[in-house]
Design a protein that fits this description.
Blueprint (H helix, E strand, L loop, with lengths): L8 H15 L6 H8 L3 H16 L9 E6 L2 E6 L4 H11 L6 H13 L2 E2 H8 L4 H9 L3 E6 L6 E5 L1 H7 L26
Antiparallel strand pairs: 1-2, 3-5, 4-5
Helix pairs in contact: 1-3, 2-3, 5-6, 5-7
Length: 192
C-alpha cells in the first residue's frame, strides 16, 4: 500500500525534488536539496540527473515544456526556449500583474531620486507611501539600499528586475522627467 512519502527509493527522492524545484524561485544547490529531502548528496545528485533525463524525454519519456538546468551553483526548472514566446504572451496578456497608479508614481519617484527615504517619497507625493513601498519591495522592484546613520531612515533604490521589466540596461536610459512636468521641476526639486 502507499505511504505518505510517495513511494520508496529513488522514485520518492525524485518526486520530492521535483516538487521542491517546482516552487523554488532561485537555483537550489545539491547540498540544500539533500538537506530538504533528508537523503545523501550522492543520491540527490543521481536523482537530479534522472530528472534532467526524464524532462528531456530520454529513454522514451515525453519531452516536457520545461527543463531542469544547473545555473549559478544550483538547479532550477526553466521554460524551454522554444516555449518562451507563448509563456511570455500568457504572462503579459492573460495573467497581468499590474501595479496601481500609486505604486507606479512611487516607483517613478524612487527611480529618478534614488537613493531616497520613504519620508522623502511621501513628501514628494504628499501621501503616505508605506503600503506601496511594501508592495514594491515584495515584487522585487526596489530594495533597501542603506540606512541613514543619522536619522535611521531606510533609503530605497531600484533593482535589476525593474531594469529587466522596463527593457533597459541602466537608469541612464530613463526619459528625462523635466519635459513632462509643467514647470520642469514640480515635486522633483532638491529636497531639504
Amino acid at each position: 500500500m502507499g505511504s505518505t512519502s510517495g513511494g520508496g527509493g529513488a522514485v520518492a527522492i525524485e518526486r520530492r525534488l521535483e516538487a521542491i524545484l517546482m516552487v523554488a524561485d532561485e537555483p537550489q544547490s545539491l547540498v540544500h536539496l539533500a538537506t530538504a529531502v533528508a537523503h545523501p548528496l550522492v543520491d540527490v545528485r543521481e536523482a537530479i540527473l534522472r530528472l534532467v533525463a526524464d524532462f528531456d524525454g530520454v529513454h522514451g519519456s515525453v519531452r516536457r515544456g520545461f527543463e531542469l538546468r544547473e545555473v549559478a551553483g544550483g538547479w532550477r526548472i526553466y521554460v524551454r526556449a522554444e516555449h518562451d514566446p507563448v509563456v511570455a504572451d500568457f504572462v503579459l496578456t492573460q495573467n497581468p500583474s499590474r501595479l496601481s497608479q500609486a505604486a507606479l508614481e512611487t516607483l517613478a519617484v524612487i527611480a529618478y531620486k534614488q537613493p531616497i527615504s520613504r519620508g522623502a517619497v511621501a513628501s514628494i507625493r504628499a501621501v503616505n507611501v508605506d503600503s506601496v513601498v511594501r508592495t514594491l519591495l515584495g515584487r522585487g522592484l526596489i530594495t533597501e539600499a542603506f540606512t541613514d546613520s543619522e536619522t535611521g531612515a531606510i533609503n530605497y533604490a531600484t533593482t535589476d528586475l525593474l531594469l529587466t521589466q522596463l527593457g533597459i540596461n541602466s537608469l541612464d536610459e530613463l526619459p528625462l522627467i523635466s519635459p513632462l512636468l509643467a514647470d520642469g521641476a514640480n515635486g522633483f526639486e532638491d529636497l531639504p
